[in-house]
Amino acid sequence: MRSVKLQVALFVLPCLGRAAAPDGGDIYKARCASCHDAGLPRIPTRDALKTFSAETVNRALVSGAMRFQGSDLSLAERHAVVEFVTAKKFEPETVPQGMCLGKPAGKPIEGEWNGWSSDLENSRFQSADSAGLAPSQVPKLKLKWAFGFPGDFVAFSQPSIVHGKLFVGSAGGKVYALDASTGCTYWAFDAGAGVRTAISIGPGSVAYFGDLQANVYAVDAASGAQLWKTAWTTTRALASPELPSCMTESSMSRYLRTMNGPPPTLVPSAVSSAEA
Ligand code: HEC
Question: Cα of 58 to ligand 1 centre, how many Å?
Answer without folding.
Answer: 11
